[in-house]
Amino acid sequence: MFTYSTQLKILVRGYCQETKWRDEHYVPETINEHLEISRVTVGAFQLACSSFVGMGDVVTKEMLDWLLTYPELLKCFTTFVRLSNDIASTKREQTGGHHASTIQCYMLQHGTTMHDACDNIKELIEDSWKDMMRHYLKPTEQTNIVARTVVDFARTGDYMYKKTDAFTFADTIKDMIELLYVKPT
Known about the structure:
Blueprint: H1 4-23, H2 31-41, H3 44-53, H4 61-67, H5 72-95, H6 102-110, H7 114-137, H8 144-161, H9 174-182
Helix pairs in contact: 1-2, 2-5, 2-6, 5-7, 5-8, 6-7, 7-8
């Protein structure tokens, strides 16, 4: 089991690995090799775990310990967010000499075009969503609040990456955030 500080160290190591890949112009040979690092560097795991810390008595130490084992529910969530991010940002990132994404790894592994790789990655996103829903609807070790919170984060990620990379271009979701939090009906 990892502590939260260990998870932050893993995040930083992942950033360093991606920087090394970029500097060496290395493209991982398989999408799974890329996902081993990029699931971490998307930051979704850290965001989800951080959100539970502030929930007071609702979340127990045992629940936090379980989360730090990186259960399948969180693996599905981080895969979903990483793939969604890469679909939304890959064309822009490739024009700026950015590091390889899951799209380029898929292209290399399967010898496909970017268009075909994106279509196949979209199927993997759907599969991640289905797997997440399976874990949500059939909770085992986690309480419903944990599963529901992770799914709600996934919904947010889906919204942010549905049409554009709204994380990078946050002004595209400014109106939605204002309606939710500043001027709720």
